[in-house]
Write the structure tokens for this entry.
Amino acid sequence: MYELDESKYLYLFILLPLLVLIFLWVQIWKRKKQREFGDEELLKVLSPEKSRFKPSLKFGIVLLGFAMLILGLVNPKIGTKVEKVKREGIDIVFAIDVSKSMLAEDVAPNRLEKSKQLVSQIINNLGSDRIGIIAYSGSAFPVLPITTDYNIAKMFLQSMNPGMISSQGSNLDEAIELTEKYFEGSGNTSKLLIMVTDGEDHSEAAESAAEQAKKKGIKIITIGVGTTSGGPIPIKNNGVTESYHIDKSTGEKVITKLRPEALQAIAKAAKGGYINGNNTKEVLDFMRKSLNNIQKTEFEATEMANFQSQFQWFLGFGFFLLLLDVFLLERKTKWVQKLDLFNEKKER
């Protein structure tokens, strides 16, 4: 197993084919100028020690040296073993509303992006809890199973968008039922569902689903994103707003609003809590207090341990190749000449 510590430097590999093109152009230009200067066979006689192969060899060594230095900057890490570790925490599932109403921009940059920011900040403040992610609108969709890998969770989180689920609406009860399946096999671990949504278009079955979740030991916290005054739902092309969603029955813009009453009712049914998500600091303080009041349970997790940085090998080999290029002359190597690999002596 391996991971790349600074993958942002991988774009530097784009420079390598550019260097190859420059080298080939220089070789063609030199060959052309030599032909203008004099006969090619005569130039070989005048400079018998000049090697036609060495320049290409030197360039190949320099190119490989640069590639090693880039890999050194990327810093590949290799995991040496998999081990079982004991951790203490709770199981948390984030259910994130990805319906079209979450594209409303009554909170900046829009409700969905604000939801992602909130969940990412909450994850950053977790200790050793296990987390999973669900996306829902008209139906619920499993995005990430229960895991202790927060980096993977945040990567999947950023990829969430309204296009991942075709059916529209805010089917909170189906998200709650899917969460129950996530928690199957968790044993006595404390279970928490965090729903991030505007609460609009939820079904009437959401409260009864929350009551069923409470009977199974699942606590629900709802985070409302949006404003009660609401806003239209933009239709964008390449990031530019072209129009807004229209109510087909009235012909007017659809104004979507935050429904805190619905979210408060769901949280109350599951003995949880509700918080308005527009203020990130208030949400983090609320979550910190809520998590502190939930009993932590010891569980066993599988982790890749002892990831070792390997940058020093790549940097060392890269500098060695660049140093080797300095001492590698463009003259023919005498011991190679004695081998007469190309039968040059017989031709003479």
